[in-house]
Amino acid sequence: MALKLNNLPFQSNTYPSFALPPMASLRSPKFFMASTLSSGSKEVESIKKPFTPPREVHVQVMHSMPPQKIEIFKSLEDWAEDNILVHLKPVEKCWQPQDFLPDPASDGFDEQVRELRARAKEIPDEYFVVLVGDMITEEALPTYQTMLNTLDGVRDETGASPTSWAIWTRAWTAEENRHGDLLNKYLYLSGQVDMRQIEKTIQYLIGSGMDPRTENSPYLGFIYTSFQERATFISHGNTARLAKEHGDMKLAQICGIIAADEKRHETAYTKIVEKLFEIDPNGTILALEDMMRKKISMPAHLMYDGRDDNLFENFSAVAQRLGVYTAKDYADILEFLVGRWQVEKLTGLSGEGQKAQEYVCGLPARIRRLEERAQARAKQATIKPFSWIFDREVKL
Ligand SMILES: [Fe+2]
Ligand SMILES: [Fe+2]
């Protein structure tokens, strides 16, 4: 799920959005690449390559978790088996995309497709822009599996590692894979979108990767995934609600069933972080503060379709306007997580830990205040064409 929020002045700087790191404004399409080599690296001018989408530039910190903390995750192997793997669903009990799509082997296929297309015709372009953005985000799944496997102490070392952490990551990926498949096939059949442009965007996005700034640390990584799973739960839930409002119960069911998976994944990831708070409250509150100061960048923030250098921002603006994912949701997620992890009740923290606790607990209210001010200043909505819908224009 990938969304940008409104332009909000936040902390001491004015960032273009929560979704973009501070240096994003330096990006120049196709000429700068994020250097991935080591901390302290600076922007480098890359050779213009046809497969290089716009990149963001900032220092990338690596392996920030002290190596001795890797032991914590090794010692949690059995705990993860009993407490985390139980949130996976056995394959035989899982829904599959085919359960929600016309059956190409049945005589009724043509008729079912005609009905699907008739329903899709009643849905406005702006909805499709958001649904396409959500689908593209889901389709960049290889990037998210890669991201999880950057995390020290929990990565899948072989590709078929028997550790609980590796089993989780592979099975999580396998569950998530159904999301992009289902939305992709639905959108293909709908006839309302430019599949070739969408497919190009997916190719660019996977080639581009993502930069969640989790520094190989499972503390940061699992805070990030907790946030993200809840963000996707909210946004798929909202596309379900809107589909229903547009009279398409079948599409509502599609979005709803995906949202339910996201909720289950959120439960697992938040449980991991809850455990970290129990074992290492100080280290975990500092990690939460760190992620929140950097802001949670959305997984598809490097999205590009070969044409629109502000595609992600434009898509996010439509999602914000339709109420699919908003600045308020960002604050709500943080507030929810702070409550879920009982951050306010943490005791025995270091001075630094107490400051982090104070910062994190005060942040949701702060974000909301800034959001209200930004709304008050909001300019007239502009109109943009989206290649995903054959350059038809949509209000941002
Ligand atoms: Fe998903
Ligand atoms: Fe997810």
Please tell me about this protein's structure.
The protein is mainly alpha-helical and 396 residues long. 55% of the residues lie in helices and 5% in strands. It contains 13 helices and six strands. It has helices at residues 70-75, 77-83, 109-121, 125-139, 141-148, 164-190, 195-208, 218-245, 249-279, 281-294, 311-322, 327-340, 351-377, and strands spanning 8-10, 13-15, 32-33, 44-45, 383-386, 392-395. It has a two-stranded antiparallel sheet with strand order 1-2. A two-stranded antiparallel sheet has the order 3-4. Bound molecules: fe (ii) ion (2 copies). Residues 138, 176, 179, 232, 262 line the site of one fe (ii) ion.
Fold topology:
Layout: E1 8-10, E2 13-15, E3 32-33, E4 44-45, H1 70-75, H2 77-83, H3 109-121, H4 125-139, H5 141-148, H6 164-190, H7 195-208, H8 218-245, H9 249-279, H10 281-294, H11 311-322, H12 327-340, H13 351-377, E5 383-386, E6 392-395
Antiparallel strand pairs: 1-2, 3-4, 5-6
The structure holds fe (ii) ion (FE2) (2 copies).
- Main beta sheet: 2 strands, antiparallel
Specify the overall morphology: globular
- Tally of helical segments: 13
Average pLDDT number: 88
Low-confidence stretches: 1-49
Radius of gyration: 21 Å
Order of helical and strand elements: EEEEHHHHHHHHHHHHHEE
Structural class: mainly alpha
Helical percentage: 40-55%
Distance from N terminus to C terminus (CA atoms, Å) equals 18 Å
Q: How many E-type strands? A: 6
EC number: 1.14.19.-
Organism: Dillenia turbinata
Protein name: Acyl-[acyl-carrier-protein] desaturase
Cofactor: Fe cation; Fe(2+)
